[in-house]
Amino acid sequence: MNIFNYMKTYDYEQLVFCQDKQSGLKAIIAIHDTTLGPALGGTRMWNYESEEAAIEDALRLARGMTYKNAVAGLNLGGGKTVIIGDPKKDKNEEMFRAFGRYIQSLNGRYITAEDVGTTVEDMDIIHEETDFVTGISPAFGSSGNPSPVTAYGVYRGMKAAAKEAFGSDMLNGKIIAVQGVGNVAYHLCKYLNDEGAKLIVTDINKEAVNRVVVEFGASAVEPNQIYNVECDIFAPCALGAVINDETIPQLKAKVIAGAANNQLKDTVHGDILHEMGIIYAPDYVINAGGVINVADELNGYNRERALKKVETIYNNIERILEISKGQQIPTYKAADRLAEERIDRIRNSRSQFLLKEKHVLTHKL
Ligand SMILES: NC(=O)c1ccc[n+]([C@@H]2O[C@H](COP(=O)([O-])OP(=O)(O)OC[C@H]3O[C@@H](n4cnc5c(N)ncnc54)[C@H](O)[C@@H]3O)[C@@H](O)[C@H]2O)c1
Ligand SMILES: CC(C)C[C@H](N)C(=O)O
């Protein structure tokens, strides 16, 4: 990978490598675009097969956060961190403190939160060293674990997509296939079960599967079977790139609406879904509940206000579906246009010189 070429192609601002020998920290912070405000995006800890794979993931996820924050209407740019390591074995207190000091050194250009492999407890340790961290414990007056709120946003966005596909946003009686039933999807399954949907689930973690089978009457299938089960809606809630050449021909669902980031392996897969008439709720639009929730901390956390903003995911999906129909373009393109138009509008409105700009971190600073 030619890093500078890649950064130039997608217009990245900064890539920061953080190393601490004593704790074993190897982290990469990618900052994509800070036109709208400081870059906010979570920290993922993952046992990457190579350093190149880690860099690529950080870059892709950071750009996704720029678009996610823009469409969600947040005054925040996009960034993300990956920590190389096994979250089950390699974590220690010194590692997150060293990482917190690196975040502090960026002086507010980047704010972190949870992602796959990191927890509220990890954010609390980072907070020992920096204020530029969200999703910390409610004991600090903060928002805590973003996953339940992400799930609520996905649920609302799924309803908006269902309305387009089935003529009603009621999900009772609908068969919904859920891939990965971890932090977000457990809560999503609860909302869906409460509304009377029938759940088919899978996960590589048997305990996670058993929990939703027992609590919500879900039926379980093997991980490789989830793509071709008879269902109305497919909800990818595990990892990225699951909509690809191999999986698309297997799909029976009319709607794809789930929490996972970077669901399309490539944009061409979004084009194919569009041609097939499958309604795809763009991942970064439907899964913005968590970032909306943690971003609210920057103004002094108010859960009611945060949830009210999460409700707008329903309208955002409706709007994207309207643009997609009106302009005859795939939904991922409609979402990208919304994001890019907002960023351009704000960039253009910033043409006057200000001696000192008002900082968006009004509460934290
Ligand atoms: N947590 C949030 O608030 C949030 C916000 C936005 C987006 N997301 C995205 O949503 C997805 C899920 O996040 P999470 O916090 O629930 O993570 P998680 O790790 O708690 O859950 C993911 C689940 O997927 C399972 N899984 C992994 N590979 C699988 C496979 N091949 N087949 C089936 N199951 C598999 C894991 O065992 C795990 O139970 C991630 O892509 C994350 O980036 C999360
Ligand atoms: C809570 C957020 C800042 C990060 C979250 N993991 C996301 O991808 O949106």
Automatic annotation (TrEMBL):
NAD among keywords: yes
Glutamate/phenylalanine/leucine/valine/L-tryptophan dehydrogenase C-terminal domain mapped to chain residues: 144-351
UniProt xrefs under Pfam families: ELFV_dehydrog (PF00208), ELFV_dehydrog_N (PF02812)
Oxidoreductase among keywords: yes
Record key words, sorted: NAD, Oxidoreductase
InterPro entries, alphabetized: Aminoacid_DH-like_N_sf, Glu/Leu/Phe/Val/Trp_DH, Glu/Leu/Phe/Val/Trp_DH_C, Glu/Leu/Phe/Val/Trp_DH_dimer, Glu/Leu/Phe/Val_DH_AS, Glu/Phe/Leu/Val/Trp_DH_bac/arc, NAD(P)-bd_dom_sf
Domain of life: Bacteria
EC code(s) of this entry: 1.4.1.9
EC category: oxidoreductase
GO MF entry, a single one: L-leucine dehydrogenase activity
Family designation: Belongs to the Glu/Leu/Phe/Val dehydrogenases family.
Identification of the protein by name: Leucine dehydrogenase
Source organism of the structure: Metabacillus malikii
Taxonomic placement: Bacteria, Bacillati, Bacillota, Bacilli, Bacillales
